[in-house]
Amino acid sequence: MEIYKFEAKDYKSDQYVRWCPGCGDHAVLNCVHKAMAELGTPPHEIAVISGIGCSSRLPYYMNSYGFHTIHGRGAAIATGVKTANPALQVWLMTGDGDCLAIGGNHFIHAVRRNIDLNIVLFNNKIYGLTKGQYSPTTDKGVVTKSSPYGTVEEPFIPAELTLGARGNFFARAIDVDLKNTTEILAAAARHKGTSVVEALVNCVIFNDGIHKQITDKENRADRTIFLRHGEKMRFGKENEKGIVLNGLKLKAVTIGQDGYTLDDVLVHDAYEPDITLHLMLSRMKGDMPVALGIIRNVAAPTYDAAVEEQIAEVQAKNPIRTLHDLLMKGEVWEVK
Amino acid sequence: MTEQSKVITLEKVVVRFSGDSGDGMQLTGTIFSNLSAILGNEISTFPDFPAEIRAPQGSLSGVSGFQVHLGSRNIFTPGDKADVLVAMNPAALKVNVNYLKPHAIVIIDTDSFQKNDLDKAKFTTDDPFTELGLTGVQVVAAPISSMVKDGLAEYGLDNKSAVRCKNMFALGLVCWLFDRPLDSAMHQLQNKFSKKPTIAKANIKALTDGYNYGNNIHASVSTYRIESKKAKPGFYTDVNGNKATSYGLIAAAEKAGLKLFLGSYPITPATDILQELAKHKELGVKALQFEDEIAGISTAIGASFAGSLAVTSTSGPGVALKSEAIGLAVIAELPLVVVDVQRGGPSTGLPTKSEQTDLLQTLYGRNGESPVVVIAATTPADCFDAAYWAGKLAVEHMTPVILLTDSFIANGSTAWRIPDLKTYPDIKPHYVSEYKDDKPWNPYRRDPETHVRYWAVPGTEGFTHRIGGLEKDFETSAISTEPYNHQKMVKTRQAKIDKIAGFIPELEVLGDKDADLLIVGWGGTYGHLCEAMEDLRENGKKVALAHFKFISPLPKNTIEVLSSFKKVIVAEQNNGQFANYLRSNVPGFNPIKFNRIKGQPFVVARLVEEFTKILEA
Question: What's the pLDDT tens digit per position in A275-303?
Fold first, then answer.
């Protein structure tokens, strides 16, 4: 029998995509379709859940099962879907406001439980659907409609939050890099447990160019580093730069300068259970390149499987399968 | 066998066990009610415990009580006032002073009625009975603590563990008082302490010592004999309302061929449902605790989308937190059961006390036009049937169903005949496989009669679809903000709920069909209203009771019933919520209202007094 090979179009719905022209979400949606085709899970075995916000419209553009829910609760609803039916491939599409403000509690607890969800966190550092208020990832001091004199609060760094909540998979992608984003999304789906992919997306209307410093072609090579497991941490237009450990800190160096050789450049180990280096890599900014790619990818038992296993263990020891048998086994007396 | 001064044969008796919250009064009361049920009595119980886990020892706020009403027939409530009170300390005597019959028997532990104990309970004299004006009661004063210590000397227990058995000594005394054999109590203790054989033996010894003590002292108090009556043949067990609710949900899932999923968060007085269902992994139940109330319902909604019989359990404050998510289940038209074990409010209110104040919250407490089914369980045992109905209506009509119980019936227990599920109506989820229309299916296509949409469960090939909280087009199921469509969808969702009136039992009228007064109640007050009605009828009054279990939609014959009596009184534990709800649904209906909001069950004697006044007015 010939096995049908799914294509990206098999995962697309017939709905007109209503995001603004130039919005970064379009690109990520295409990458999701491509990643799903690569994974080859039939659309009817996929559930795409979302909360509220621009990015949370995504389920309507899928030809899978989809549920566009309420603000902030996507992680909890997706948890219910996956726990009830672990055979489904479950995705959560969410944004920086939905996931880290109103839904922060559900997000950290989903990560802590390590339930097998693929969370795509669209981070444009702004509330788009409500037209331009600051979000929990908006940089301090930024002027928005609800912070006319600039914000006075520190933002979350999604990677810190994920690792702090004991997350086992964290990756960062940019909307303009379709190839790598597709690859990251597929890897996130293959990972058993909660995987968090922070997709840096542009909001063309309310926060245009927010990631420009790192996403523009001319800057990208020098201001970002794409991490791959088992490979040296190198970056730059000529791949001439690298990340080294300097005491307890990371340092960006030029290979061959200041006495640094290629041997000094760190090798990325995404599988390392200790979070220390992953945390340092995920926090790089300013003079250091922003880390992209899969920063952490550690195997660990999942919640949904553990729930099933516990039931199987109890059932192996206890033959009762009906309410009637259960009640008759308890304290009963007979009236004749 | 004994020279008891007086044996009184009674139809009914009320016994109240009361002591410090660490004195084991709940266990004592439970064992006594179980053994009475096994002997063929009808029972109804009411545990009354403090909100504090461990209030200061001996203090008034730390008193924990357990009342049981037993008798040969017509036991509808745990009873108003006690015939027998076990007071393990002065505080227990003081807080119960208004719950005693004038000639009640009071059993006290003299070891804990010392000066220091009296001080803690704020007595100013050394004679608590006179100070409280309890001059007519018959006191059995026994040095229980010291006798228990002496009796258990051979077991090598430390002082604290030995004294902890004093509740069983008291139970032994009560068993003697009622001429009840001890074997069933011993059996229960052996089960309870099966992993601690020494503790089991010590408790049984204390129990026997208590019984023998009563026998030996020839206490000059009345002893009682409760007549037993033949119950309907079958197997019986003891359940409280929360257990019965849990079993009802399991039964509904079993009958529907669905997996049961509970998403929950601990909250008094609903937590027992989570704890009970979490035990039953052998039945494949997934009962899980999540990070908050909202996650409890959200995971349940996710599980419902994924094809489970999904439930969340909570109390009033939790319903408030879940409101937005209930609205999502309304517009997504997903089956969901929300169990609300009502407690005193608003806010944190009276967490361990009972009220019926969440009615309007469950009917209307959401944004938008958001109709749901509301069912209210009437007794501890009825929690089983009500939960079964909740599951049935949810999956057959693709709607959230809110099941109201309350702290009183959730914790009250009763002897319960193990049901034969074959006699329960079938539950047929409204699956997409039933879709027969010529038009291609989409998620908001409906059964033309019931307006129920079809359940297409993820994993099913050929039915991928997207639903959500945004309004959808009646025909295409795509997102729609079109004005006429929205009105049509709002009306359709309401009509879907209204149609359910054709699938539920009609309202029954108990008592006299030509009554001069119709009593109307709903939910957990059934026992008290029923008993009040029976009392009045025994005194020659013509009264009837219409007690509602189905609140939304109302039974089909509601208007007909309410319009056929001259005088109607709506009695409820709130400020008139159900009376006002009925007024908005029954043209010209203008009932008398009887409202008590004290956190305590109705008092039958007060109801009889009030209803008599109205009858004579």
Answer: 999 999 999 999 999 999 999 999 999 99
**Torsion sign, CA atoms A142, A145, A147, A150:** positive
Q: Exposure of B191 by Cβ count < 10 A (0-12 exposed, 13-18 middle, 19+ buried)?
A: exposed
Question: What CA–CA distance (Å, rounded) separates B294 from B275?
Answer: 18
Chain A positions in Cβ-Cβ contact with residue B249 (cut-off 8 Å): none
CA angle B81, B86, B91 (to 5 degrees): 90
ipTM of the complex: 0.98
Alpha-carbon span B577 to B342, nearest angstrom:
14
CATH number, domain B6-226, options 3.40.920.10, 3.30.1490.190, 3.60.9.10, 2.40.280.10: 3.40.920.10
**Cis ω on the peptide bond leading into residue B371 (within 30° of 0)?**
no
Question: Cβ contact (<8 Å) for A80 and B299?
Answer: yes
Residue (of A142, A139, A216) closest to A175 by Cα position: A216
- What does the buried/exposed string (b/e) look like for B426-435 if buried means 16 or more CB atoms within 10 Å of the residue's CB? ebebbebeeb
Please write the tens of the pLDDT for every residue from A180-234.
999 999 999 999 999 999 999 999 999 999 999 999 999 999 999 999 999 999 9
Percent of all residues in chain B with a pLDDT value above 70, rounded to a whole number = 96
Q: Which fold has domain B237-420?
A: Rossmann fold (3.40.50)
**Other Cβ atoms within 10 Å of A162 Cβ, number:** 29
A interface test, pick of B38, B285, B298 with most A CB neighbours within 10 Å: B298
| B478 to A15: CB separation less than 8 angstroms, yes or no | yes
Nearest to B231 among A77, A326, A335 (CB): A335
Distance CA B483, CA B470 (A): 14
Place of tokens 């992993």: B195
Task: Select A8-215's CATH number: 3.40.50.410, 3.40.50.970, 3.40.1360.10, 1.10.10.10.
Answer: 3.40.50.970
Four-way CATH pick for B509-616: 3.40.50.450, 3.20.20.70, 3.40.50.920, 6.20.20.10: 3.40.50.920
| φ, ψ of residue A30 in degrees (nearest 5) | -60, -40
Q: Is B305 on the interface with A (CB under 8 A)?
A: yes
Residue B422 touches partner A, C-beta closer than 8 Å: no
Write the residue in B302, B307, B418 that is nearest to A77 by C-beta: B302
User: How far does Cα A64 stand from its chain's mean position?
Assistant: 19
Q: Treating both helix axes as pointing N-terminal to C-terminal, what angle do A178-190 and A24-39 enclose, rounded to 10 degrees? A: 50
Our CA-based measurement puts residue B150 at a distance from the nearest CA of chain A, in whole angstroms, of 32
d(CA B167, CA B172): 9
In the stretch 209-238 of chain B, residues with CB closer than 8 A to chain A read 230-238
Tens of pLDDT, residue by residue over B133-164, are 998 888 889 999 999 999 999 888 898 899 99
